[in-house]
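// run 5 | inverse folding | seed 20
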């Protein structure tokens, strides 16, 4: 079961279904579920065209076969009562996540494993709400955007999670075609701990007027082999998400303060509603 039919949730549903798992995508409204199905449809068509370039029938049957593994529901409790693995990919809000997991803990079978795809909240804190037993079956499972294309999953080990569950998550990750890495429950885990300060420094280069956004991106693509430059990547991740992560780290004071000090250019764009690709405008403009 995957909770959340947004970009991350639908991506996780897709890779699990492609690997042959029966998966139910759960969200609070039919509209959200329709949106999730449409993201999956687009992505699967792309995969199918690549896999079976000259064979439209094979493309169609591939997409149908994957969809046959996917169901949707607005009833989280009922779905959880029959799920071996619950992966949550909803809004980055600790209260909402705890409320959801607290409810599911009461209805899910004892053996169910609970995972959060959080990118910035402590997994241990989210898990505070569940029973002591479930805490041994609760971990972070952090996928990357776009999920069907990015090969990594960070498997986040809390102090409470059992070795057996951790190993099972490594196995699941490999079965969905990803490479797992193990990491402790620290801010940003591995990827975002390195990526976010790097992107923040790129914004500061702009603020100091040292180079243009386009040149910063070109420099990092051609000079450091990045698939996207840091500015383009920030627009891709979402500037609201970037700000949310950085604000959280500032508040917690765990990360070196200079790395996440407030950045006017980022704050201004967010307050203007220019959140990156998803709103058609961020550091750059995007055609709809
Ligand atoms: N669905 C299915 N497949 C997709 C896809 C999608 N939505 N998007 C890309 N792909 C596949 C393509 O089919 C192609 O497959 P192939 O290697 O088998 O040919 C491959 O990915 C590359 O795609 P393209 O050739 O179309 O385009 P690019 O080469 O420009 O790659 C990209 C696109 C994969 C998005 C690349 O630009 C990239 O890797 N960008 C960086 C993304 C990144 O860093 N993501 C992490 C962000 S941080 C994060 O998510 C954490 C969060 O917590 C904040």
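// decoded
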């Amino acid at each position: 079961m995957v909770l959340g039919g947004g970009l991350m949730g639908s991506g996780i549903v897709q890779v699990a279904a492609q690997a042959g798992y029966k998966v139910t995508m759960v969200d609070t409204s039919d509209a959200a579920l329709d949106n999730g199905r449409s993201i999956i449809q687009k992505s699967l068509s792309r995969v199918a065209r690549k896999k079976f370039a000259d064979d439209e029938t094979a493309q169609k049957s591939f997409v149908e076969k994957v969809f046959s593994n996917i169901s949707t529901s607005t009833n989280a409790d009922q779905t959880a009562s029959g799920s071996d693995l619950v992966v949550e990919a909803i809004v980055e809000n600790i209260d909402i996540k705890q409320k959801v997991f607290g409810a599911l803990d009461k209805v899910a079978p004892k053996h169910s494993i609970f995972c959060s795809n959080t990118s910035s909240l402590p997994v241990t804190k989210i898990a505070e709400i569940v029973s002591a037993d479930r805490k041994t079956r609760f971990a972070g499972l952090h996928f990357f955007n776009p999920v069907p294309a990015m090969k990594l999953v960070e498997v986040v080990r809390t102090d409470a999670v059992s070795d057996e569950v951790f190993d099972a998550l490594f196995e699941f990750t490999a079965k969905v075609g990803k490479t797992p890495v193990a990491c402790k429950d620290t801010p940003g885990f591995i990827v975002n701990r390195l990526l976010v300060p790097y992107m923040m420094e790129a914004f500061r280069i702009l603020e100091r007027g040292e180079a243009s956004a386009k040149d910063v991106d070109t420099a990092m693509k051609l000079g450091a082999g990045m698939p996207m430059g840091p500015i383009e990547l920030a627009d891709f991740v979402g500037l609201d998400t970037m700000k949310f992560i950085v604000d959280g780290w500032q508040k917690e004071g765990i990360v070196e303060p200079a790395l996440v000090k407030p950045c006017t250019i980022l704050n201004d764009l967010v307050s203007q509603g220019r959140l990156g690709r998803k709103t058609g405008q961020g550091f750059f403009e995007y055609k709809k």
